[in-house]
């Protein structure tokens, strides 16, 4: 039996809207959104964890780099379960690193560190966890992207209007860096 909840973000969700309630979600049945060519599925977020962390997956095809951005108050984890992801990161001293992550590899991005990534193989999947003091950013995906009821990757990439990129930093701790240049190979 699967329960459905209404939340302030979605008409229906399998994630209970309040903390302190145990729940279980079958594979792929979290809150889904399409952003660029990817499918993001949220399994736990700020509402369930009292804004201490979130847990989501990101699946996508081989493609373009996801725009450089940073999180002022949020630490982010990349754990690759399928395919390959090239992670670009700049530390707070300005040193840049680029690393190819394959299944079982782990990447950690501290708060205030610019980063970007690119799916390097078709049907790549990342497990993401983000945590920080006082907020989480999982609802960013469906607010910049578009909520998705269906399973699977979008038929066409969903690229937000340019003005939408400026609307998310205050609410979701995601600041895009359009002038970021990667000096790595």
TrEMBL record:
All copies of domain Cupin type-2, residue ranges: 61-119
Region described as Disordered: 1-20
Alphabetical list of Gene3D superfamilies matching this protein: Jelly Rolls
UniProt protein name: Quercetin 2,3-dioxygenase
One Pfam family matching this protein: Cupin_2
Superkingdom per UniProt: Bacteria
